[in-house]
């Protein structure tokens, strides 16, 4: 009996030892496996145009002159029936006939012995693209690249023109166009003087770490004729616009001029020697010398009341803005599409193009301004400002303005 009990105890001890040994042996395995799983790095896939391209061959190029979709894809052994189907399927998304010379495209094809085209991507612009999926089921869709916005600052002194000053400062010269738009109602850019200065806070846009141009001007101060003119971009009621340091709108009823960055060749006068007739007579307008075909803009909202050739005035447009003011645009080479009597135009709309029709020695625009039917000097017209910042947003605006003024001062 005693021996039997002793044997049972020994068996239990041996069994316990085996269980302990098994448990000790297996536990590290489980722990080790768990740790290894934790330490396995996550694969970072290379993605272009929303497509994982790790296992694909990538070929990039630009559309050549007179090159069409068929010529591009045939090079990569895409057959004619497939190309024809792609062109037809593409119409609701993009008309392949609008593929432009110089635009980028990318071909993605399989990295195997067949090297079959998987995708064709055409870039419509630096930010938008069209994807042609040539895999099992043909699909076509559009996409947009992510735009990275960086805030930049610049400043400069004008020696000749605003355009040259900005360009010489190695800054995007399109900023000159932006400033001319912002200050179109307050500064006569034909009268810019040597020594005028500017400070600008603006957005620069990047795609794939490459600059694609400028965004909005956020704030600026333009020093002209001894005065400083502020402009701040502010959004109220979901609409963004520019306001000055007193919260007044930068807009006015009329633009300062119907052209941009051109030379005044002749001013308003009651006695001017006519360059062709060689007699003195009134010249009740301002002549803007400009290249043939330069767009001419309406200086304000209004209705076209005249649009045809008129003797020495050449091709002429007259716009009635209200019961008081009318403007006229003379010597045009042609009219913009749709311009005819009875058409309503908005401020800034293109209404025609500079020419030399009628009695003219060269391409220019003769711009005239009438108040109650009487000609007045366009350069002396003063317009009341548009609506200022709403009182409900004035505190928010003042905070933005004060911060931006400090930033401008630090430039």
Overview of the molecule:
The protein has six helices and 24 strands. The strands form five sheets. Strands 13, 16, 17, 18, 19, 20, 21, 22, 23 and 24 form a ten-stranded antiparallel β-sheet that branches. A five-stranded antiparallel β-sheet has the order 3-4-5-6-7, with helices on one face. Helix content is 21%, strand content 37%.
Q: Architecture of the largest domain, CATH level 2?
A: Distorted Sandwich
CATH C-level class of the largest domain? Mainly Beta
CATH topology of the largest domain: the name is Glucose Permease (Domain IIA)
Low-confidence stretches: 24-40
Taken together, the total number of domains comes to 3
The biggest sheet, with number of strands, parallel, antiparallel or mixed sense and barrel status, is:
10 strands, antiparallel
**Helix proportion range:** 10-25%
SS field, number of helical segments: 6
Structural class: alpha+beta
Radius of gyration: 35 Å
CATH superfamily of the largest domain: Glucose Permease (Domain IIA)
Question: What are the SSEs and their pairings?
Answer:
Blueprint: H1 2-39, E1 47-48, E2 51-52, E3 56-62, H2 69-74, H3 80-90, E4 104-110, E5 117-123, E6 128-133, E7 139-144, E8 148-157, H4 162-168, H5 174-182, E9 197-207, E10 210-224, E11 227-236, E12 239-243, E13 263-266, E14 269-273, E15 280-283, E16 286-289, E17 295-297, E18 302-309, E19 315-320, E20 325-335, E21 344-345, E22 350-354, E23 364-371, E24 374-376, H6 394-410
Antiparallel strand pairs: 1-2, 3-4, 4-5, 5-6, 6-7, 8-9, 9-10, 10-11, 11-12, 13-16, 14-15, 16-23, 17-22, 18-19, 18-21, 19-20, 20-22, 20-23, 23-24
């Amino acid at each position: 009996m005693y021996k039997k009990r002793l044997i049972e105890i020994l068996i239990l001890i041996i069994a316990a030892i085996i269980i302990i040994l098994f448990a000790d042996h297996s536990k590290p395995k489980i722990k080790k496996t768990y740790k290894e799983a934790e330490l396995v790095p996550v694969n970072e896939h290379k993605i272009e145009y929303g497509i994982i391209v790790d296992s694909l061959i990538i070929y990039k190029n630009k559309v050549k002159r007179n090159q069409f979709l068929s010529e591009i894809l045939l090079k990569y052994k895409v057959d004619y029936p497939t190309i024809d189907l792609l062109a037809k399927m593409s119409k609701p998304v993009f008309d392949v006939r609008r593929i432009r010379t110089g635009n980028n495209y990318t071909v993605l094809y399989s990295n195997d012995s067949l090297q079959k085209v998987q995708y064709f991507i055409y870039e419509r612009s630096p930010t938008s693209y069209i994807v042609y999926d040539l895999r099992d089921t043909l699909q076509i869709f559009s996409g947009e690249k992510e735009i990275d916005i960086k805030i930049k600052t610049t400043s400069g002194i004008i020696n000749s023109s605003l355009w040259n000053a900005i360009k010489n400062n190695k800054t995007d010269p399109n900023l000159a166009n932006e400033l001319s738009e912002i200050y179109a109602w307050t500064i006569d850019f034909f009268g810019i003087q040597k020594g005028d200065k500017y400070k600008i806070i603006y957005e620069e846009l990047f795609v794939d770490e490459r600059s694609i141009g400028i965004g909005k001007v956020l704030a600026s101060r333009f020093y002209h004729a001894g005065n400083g003119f502020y402009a701040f971009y502010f959004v109220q009621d979901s609409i963004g616009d520019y306001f000055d340091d007193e919260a007044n709108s930068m807009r006015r009823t009329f633009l300062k001029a119907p052209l941009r960055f051109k030379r005044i060749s002749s001013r308003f006068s009651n006695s001017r020697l006519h360059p062709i007739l060689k007699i003195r007579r009134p010249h009740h307008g301002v002549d803007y010398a400009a290249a043939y075909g330069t767009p001419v803009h309406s200086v304000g909202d209004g209705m076209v009341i005249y649009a045809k050739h008129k003797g020495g005035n050449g091709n002429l447009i007259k716009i009635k803005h209200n019961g008081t003011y009318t403007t006229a645009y003379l010597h045009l080479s042609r009219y913009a599409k749709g311009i005819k009597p009875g058409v309503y135009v908005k401020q800034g709309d293109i209404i025609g193009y500079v020419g030399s029709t009628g009695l003219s020695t060269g391409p220019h625009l003769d711009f005239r301004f009438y108040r109650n039917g009487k000609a007045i000097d366009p350069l002396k017209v003063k317009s009341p400002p548009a609506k200022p910042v709403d009182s409900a947003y004035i505190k928010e605006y003042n905070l933005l303005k004060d911060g931006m003024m400090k930033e401008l001062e630090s430039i």
